[in-house]
Amino acid sequence: MKRLLLLLSLSLSIFGCDRYEYVHVHSYVYSYVDYTRLELDTLNNGSNFKIPGSYFKIAMIPKDINCLYQVNRNDEMYEYYCELHKDTTYPEHKISTTDFITSRFTVYDYSSVDITASIDWDSSHPAGQSLNDLVHFVSMSPYKYILSGYKTLSPNPLNEGTASKYYMDVFESELKNYNSEIPVYPVDKKCSNLNEDDMVLLDFIRCHALAYLVFETRPARPCTVTVKLTATTGKVFSASVKVD
Question: What value does the mean pLDDT of the chain take?
């Protein structure tokens, strides 16, 4: 009998007894995660990310993800983040726990980003000076969708041609998946023009990164680019990458 119970326990742990549990949700976001560090990827040949286009890009990728807060755990922190983002009146519906990965966001919203290089980028940007006026911040976020009362963005910016060439360079293939209405809004600005509302609920699952930094120019020679991303909590994430 004990052996039977042990085998049953092992089966539940392997196959996950709540894998197909269904829960009722009232928020667009199903789960939130914390992360401890930021990683940069220059999207060169051999990169983990294959994004077409001619502009030099750096992906900002959260790493060491932990502290999962989600709807099916009666989690006070999950409810806190839903209320923080005013995401509490989404039409109630039932989802499987396997759907959580499709609507997962970090616990951090961001107040600023600063980009510098280890060398003189050009005559107007000496080593260590901000490159924010040369770099476009492109991402996706459902925050405006939530604030609008869950009204989808229509028409698709791909069809209307309203997205910038930098945004299109990153997300054209993704936007083609939506014929008309999409539940996420574009984040598409120069870093020097960003404000806090632009960096809320960045969709790192659909985008495969928090955001992409699209540079208008390349450095004259190899250097190191450093990105500092400051959360609204005051926490600073900093990472560097070598650029050829």
Answer: 80
Give Cα separations from 157 to 19, 196, 220 (angstroms).
Answer: 36, 22, 34
Q: How many angstroms separate the CA atoms of 210 and 105, rounded?
A: 9
CB 60 within 8 A of CB 229: yes
CA distance readout (Å), 54 to 44, 159, 227 = 11, 21, 21
For residue 93, the one-letter residue type is H
Q: What is the pLDDT of residues 76-110, one digit of tens each?
A: 888 899 999 999 998 877 776 666 566 788 899 99
**CA dist., res. 136 & res. 78, Å (int):** 31
Residue indicated by tokens 């509490």: 88
State how far the Cα of 214 lies from the Cα of 190, in Å rounded to an integer.
Answer: 9
Structure-derived torsion over alpha carbons of residues 168, 171, 174, 180, reported in degrees to the nearest 10: -40
Do 161 and 168 form a contact (C-beta atoms < 8 A)? no
Model confidence, pTM: 0.81
Q: Could you tell me which residues are beta bridge partners of residue 226?
A: 116, 240
Continuous H helices in 61-201 = 76-84, 143-147, 157-160, 165-175
**Dihedrals phi, psi of 212, to nearest 5 degrees:** -115, 135
| 3-class secondary structure, 210 | coil
**DSSP readout, 153-187?**
B-S-HHHHT-S-HHHHHHHHHHHTT-SS-BSSEEE
